[in-house]
Amino acid sequence: MADNGMKVNVVAFTIREIEGQNYRRLPEKKLVVLLRTAPDTEKETLYDLPEAFVQTGERVPQTASRLLKERLGMEEAWLALNDVSGTEGSYVSSYWTLFAADAVREFPEDRHLFDVIYHMEERESRVRGTRCESLETWRLELVSGEQRLSAVIRVSRESDLYNETLTCSAEKCSGIREDCAIQIARSVFQLRHSVRDTLIAFKLMPETFTLTELQKVYETILDTPLLTANFRRKISPYVIGTDEYAPIGGHHPSLLYRRNIPAFIRED
Questions:
Q1: What's the rounded Cα separation, in Å, for the pair 191 and 226?
Q2: Between the CA atoms of 55, 59, 63 and 65, what dihedral angle is there, to the nearest 10 degrees?
Q3: Residue 3: pLDDT above 60?
Q4: Cα separation, 206 vs 102, whole angstroms
C-alpha cells in the first residue's frame, strides 16, 4: 500500500569488463548503469530508473533497500541520497549505489545495463570576490548494443570558500526521460566525488586483486588516466600483499593484494 504517493528510485552503477583480442592487455572496463523499460510509452521505447512506492509504515531508505532486494536480488547494498524532487504529496527520493556485477544473480527482463559516457563540452565561469559561478554543458550518452540514449545536461554551479550549490537541467533527451537523465548526471557527479575522497571503489573488487586492476576501476569511474606511482602511494595504506600471483597476459605474473581491513575501519 503506497503512502501519500511518495516514490523512490535508484541509480545503480557497476563496472563491466570487455574481453579484448589482445591477451597481453587487461580487459577494458566500462562504467554502466541499470535502467528499466519505462511503462506506458506508446510512440517510442523510453528508459527510466528502477522505482517503487513507499509503503505505509515504511521509511524512505527502507523502500530503497527493498527495491534493490526485490527487483534486483541484492541482499545488502550501500545507498547514498542523491536528490529529493516533486511537490507536496508526490515527492520522489532518488538514491544511487555502486555494486559488484556478480552481486546480482539475474536481471529481470525489463532491466538493461547501459554503458555511461559523460563528457563536458563547454564551460563558462566568472569569479566575484570569494564566489565563483559557472555554467557547464555536458553530453550524456547511454549505450547498449545498437541502442543509444542521449541528453544534453546543463549544470549551474555557485560556490564560495565553504559551500557549493549545483543545479541540473536536461535538454534534447532521446530515448530517456528528462528526470531520469538529470538523476543519472547528478549521480555521476557524486560517484566521481566519492571515488576521489573515499574508498568506495573497493566495493567493486574481489577478495584478491592486482593494483593494476584496482587502478583501472578508478580510471574508469573518474574517466581520466592516473599516474601509477601517485596512485599506488595513495592506496598503499589500504592494501596488503599476499603470497599469490596473477598472470596478466603475456607479461610477468602480478602480485595479488587484499584489503587492509584495520585501515578501512580507521577510515570510517
A1: 17
A2: -150
A3: no
A4: 10
Cell of 84: 529529493
What residue has cell string 534486483? 72
The answer to whether 265 and 238 have CB atoms below 8 angstroms apart is no
What H or E segment, with its residue span, contains residue 31? strand 28-37
Q: Are 51 and 67 in contact (CB under 8 A)?
A: yes
If you average pLDDT over residues 203-214, what whole number do you get? 93
> What is the spatial distance between Cα 187 and Cα 189, in angstroms, rounded to a whole number?
5
Q: Are 13 and 30 in contact (CB under 8 A)?
A: no
Which residues does 261 contact at the CB level (< 8 Å), separation at least 6? none
Q: Three-state SS for 20?
A: coil
CB-CB contact of 95 with 9 (8 Å): yes
Residue 156 main-chain phi, psi, to 5 deg: -110, 125
Question: Terminal CA-to-CA distance of the chain, rounded, Å?
Answer: 37
Taking the C-alpha atoms of residue 92 and residue 182, their distance in angstroms, rounded to an integer, is 13
CA gyration radius for the chain?
20
Asked if residue 147 lies in contact with residue 175, where contact means CB atoms within 8 angstroms, the answer is: yes
pLDDT of residue 1: 45
pTM here is: 0.86
Count of all residues that appear for the chain in the document: 268
Of the candidates 220, 198, 241, 203, the residue with the CA atom closest to the CA atom of residue 26 = 220
